[in-house]
Each structure stands twice: as structure tokens, then as C-alpha cells.
Amino acid sequence: MSEIEQLISIEFPLKDDIIYLNHAAVAPWPTRTAAAVRRFAEENVSTGAMNYPVWVKKENELRRQLQILINAPSPDNIALLKNTSEALSVVACGIDWQSGDNVVSTDQEFPSNRIVWQAQKKYGVEFREVNINTADPEQILISACDKHTRFLSVSSVQFGSGYKLNLARLGEFCRTHNILFCVDAIQSIGAHVLDVQKIQADFVMADAHKWMLCPEGIALFYCNEQSREQLTLQQYGWHMVEDYTNYDAKDWTMAASARRFECGSPNMLGIHALSASLSLIEEVGMEIIEHKIRQNVAYLMENLELNPRIRLLTPRDAARHAGIVTFIIDGVDMAQLHRRLQENYIICAHRMGGIRFSPHFYTGQEKIHKALDILNISI
């Protein structure tokens, strides 16, 4: 058994009958994450917040971990928020909109990356949803932009189809044309390498409960130094000021860093959990994680295509997908099939009228093979 196989057996002791193919929704925790949560809970029970300064060090350590994970210029570019929706709202509600402005996006976005922009209609903002089911989706998005486009806001990987966009190309266009580039990276970070500087993103956000293998309730929000100055704060509190440990000061200034977007007390439980989960990602290495996920996805696609009734909704091109494989079976009630798969402990999702499988790096191919056998019997 290799070192990684040994690590996987320790960190992911899922029940033998469970085949977990739903990391694009909510992922299981590694054992080290559960242990970190347990230790933090026990500490609170026995000593309360006596060691709060140590907790703050853990908070700062997490910012550095996230900085390295996405190659941010500095930990100061990282805010710790509740979820992707909150981060998107910070951006969409922080802009000084002018009537006639528009936001360009795709027609496959999760509601979080649609509703926040549609809500700006009251300021005269147009939300443009572009059909990306084309040979060149980046060009279609670029062509939808004009001199009134303030934002290009897309998911790095679409939650339903698993369609992966060329973010570097879009980022270069936005930088050249003075358009703000916003990326919902919840289906990328932890699944494949994402470099915020390479893609020239202004804003990147992602919950930690999917590919980062963490509990719900904590998310990263990246914003570069120049772009965050364009956002007006909509929430205020003790934690977003520069001198946030001086409780007696009557005068204050907002934090120079991205901490300005964290208005109140941090989610210390989530911070301890996410730091533990990221320590596993660091130990394995994102390149290895991405490689293993690609192997699992290729294995899934190759075997699904052996059945002529199955039609992949996820692009076959390796450059166009990440960890998601979604498919439809002609003549089959897919909602009913999803229920049957769940009853057989194949944990997956019903998306885009089809079945969505999303294996992680630790998912063994023997598990995938068993899932495919059950799928074939079920149809």
C-alpha cells in the first residue's frame, strides 16, 4: 500500500456500503477535521475561551493556507465569510452602480451567481445570461460585453453540467477592457489548481464544504487590493476596523485588508475545521489531487459511454471538465433513478434532469466500478 493509499484509508473510513459521488454538493470530512472539531469543542467545555489568542493565530494561519492554495499575493487578500452567496452579495451590493450598467454571465449559473446581479435591477443594471453551449463559450461571453459592462461574473466550473471555462482568457479580456472579473470557484478550489493571479481575477469566492472537505458555514473570499477599494461596505462591526482589538476607541477606520468585509466575530469552529482539511490537501498536494480526480472522471466517462443509451452532459474534452460528470439516460425517469441509486447507497445528485457524479481524489476506482454496476442493473 502506497503512502497516499495509507493516508486515504485513515482519513476517509466511509462505511463499506457507501459509494460517495457527491463532492460537488456536500463532502464527507476527513478524520483529522473531525478530530480538530472535537478538540475545539472539548477545549470550549473545559477552559472556555481562555486560549483565544491561540485561536487568533489559527485564524491567521488559515489565511496563509488559503493564500498559498489559490496563489493570492498576500493573506491580506483573503476574507473569511459564511458562504459563496455572502461573498457575491458583498461584491454586487458594494458597487456604485450607474443606470445602464450591465453584468455578463452564463445561462448555467447556480442561483447564487444570478440572484445577486438580478437584484441590482432596481439601479438600472441589466443582467445578461449567455448561452455557453457552443464551441467557443469564452468568445460568446466576450462578445456579450460592451462599453457599459461593469462585471463579467462566471462559475469556474458549472454546477450542473460540469462545464469548465478558460478563466485565464476571460481574465485577460477583462483586464484589457477595464471590466471587473468575478469567479464563483466553489466547484474548482480543492478539485483542481486555481491561480487567482494567473486568471487575473478581481474577486474569487468559494464555500469550503465541497472539494475542500470542510463543514458548511465558512468560505474564502479573495479580492485583490485595487478592486476591493471599489466596494462600499454594507455591514459594519468590531472586527472590520483596522485596530480591532482596541474596544475603547471612539474613532475608527476600516481595515486596509480584506478583513474589512468581516463585520463581526469569526467562525472559530469553522476556522479550526477548514485549517485541518487544508492540511490534508497540502500533504497530498493539489497536483496529485487534480491528477487523481481526472483519472476518476476519465474512468467514469469511458465506462458510461459503453452504454449507447447514456448521453453525457459534461464535455468530454479534458480541458472542459473538472470533477463533475453529469449524464442522461434516454427513456429513463432520472428522478426515479436517482432515488434508486440513493437507496443503494450511491450518494449522488439529480441535476439538469440527469444524474451528477462527482468523485474526489480518494474515491477508489473499485467503488466507481461498483456504482456503475448498480447503475446498469437499475436501468
Unreliable stretches, pLDDT < 50, 5 or more residues?
A: none
Instruction: Identify the quaternary structure here.
Output: single chain
Arrangement of strands in the largest sheet:
2-8-7-6-5-3-4
Query: How many discrete structural domains?
Result: 2
The end-to-end span amounts to 36 Å
Bulk shape:
globular
CATH topology group of the largest domain: Aspartate Aminotransferase, domain 2
Query: CATH homologous superfamily of the largest domain - what is it?
Result: Type I PLP-dependent aspartate aminotransferase-like (Major domain)
Rounded radius of gyration (Å): 21 Å
Compressed to H and E, one letter per element, the order equals: HEHHEHEHEHEHEEEHHHEEHEEEH
| Percentage of residues in DSSP E strands | 5-15%
Helix fraction bin: 25-40%
SS summary, helix count? 12
- Main beta-sheet strand count, sense and barrel state: 7 strands, mixed
